[in-house]
Amino acid sequence: MFQRGIAAAAVALVLAGCSSLPFFGGADKPKAAELPPNPATLGIRPAWNNKVGEVGFPLAVNVSGNQLAVASSDGTVAVLDAATGGDLWRASVGAPIAAGVGSDGTTAAVVTQANEVVALSGGKVLWREKIPAQAYTAPLVAGNRVFVLAADRSVIAFDGQTGRRLWSQSRPGEPLVLRQAGVLLAVGDTLVAGQGGRLAGLNPANGSIRWEAPIATPRGTNDVERLVDLVGRVSRVGNSVCARAFQASVGCVDANRGTVAWTKPANGGEGVSGDERMVIGTESDGRIVAWRRDSGERAWVHDKLLYRGLGTPLVVGSSVAVGDSTGLLHVLSRDDGTLRTRVTTDGSPVAAAPVVAGTTLVVVTRAGGVHAFVPQ
What we know:
The chain is mainly β. The chain has a single domain, classed as 7 Propeller (Methylamine Dehydrogenase, Chain H), CATH 2.130.10.10. It contains one helix and 34 strands. The strands form nine sheets. The chain has a four-stranded antiparallel sheet with strand order 2-34-33-32, with no helix packed on it.
């Protein structure tokens, strides 16, 4: 029913949290917009709650069938039943987590603050391997391998069962990186990774580059102005992959041919979501913008949630769900951006982009609350 209704070994500096960048220089942060009345034209009810530890890293909630993989900063990794919220298993990797979770439904993987990739299965650690740089992007677990995108823009592949390093690929980049998730996904038999302002298509067997497609080109006179790293999540529909370049642009690429379909200027630091019709993202000032997937032209802009610390949205069915810094989840119409309803969580900021498993919408907060909702 929801489907219908709703950057390193030699890094000079790491920038944390994109939302503060527009306010460099000591300027006061603008006051958050007052919330409009809740129209409640879409019925949603709480389904279940669970709890992990506090989340202080760029969490990716992984959905594999009816399983949800989540993690907390203290090293806890948990796989939950999406229907009931109950633990299928829960384990500790023994160190604070910097990035995660990636999973294929059998093997889960995270990266610790000590730069170790840790793979688990059934609540037990399978292996752990050191990488030479920090990582903020959840590992990709696919094809019996674990792929890691490090903050120095290198990509490393490990055997999923043994942790044996299979290959690594490094690319030069700008000296600054973002302390937030980048882009790493599989499209058919191609591994697609964000490297600077480019999407790169890699051969997953050996790491060789098949194609590169620029979403943004570094400009400006200083390192901050030249920072255009791609940020997760992305919107993929078939071979079409749409992504955001930090504070620069949004664009779509044909991942089969490695060609850019379109790019448009955009001033945001969070990933995008979308479907076959729309690509939707949040700007740094809190505007929510929808671009038409075929052309990149703007379809609509929602400006009633300015400066409320919006995260990455989720397009699901005819709705768009997006969390804010007060733990509220706002649900808009995909077609015109009008507000449909608003629900509460635990009052702490939403820590990850919402996900859907089956008919259940799941949101995780910084306080570690895992909140599930279903339509009425």
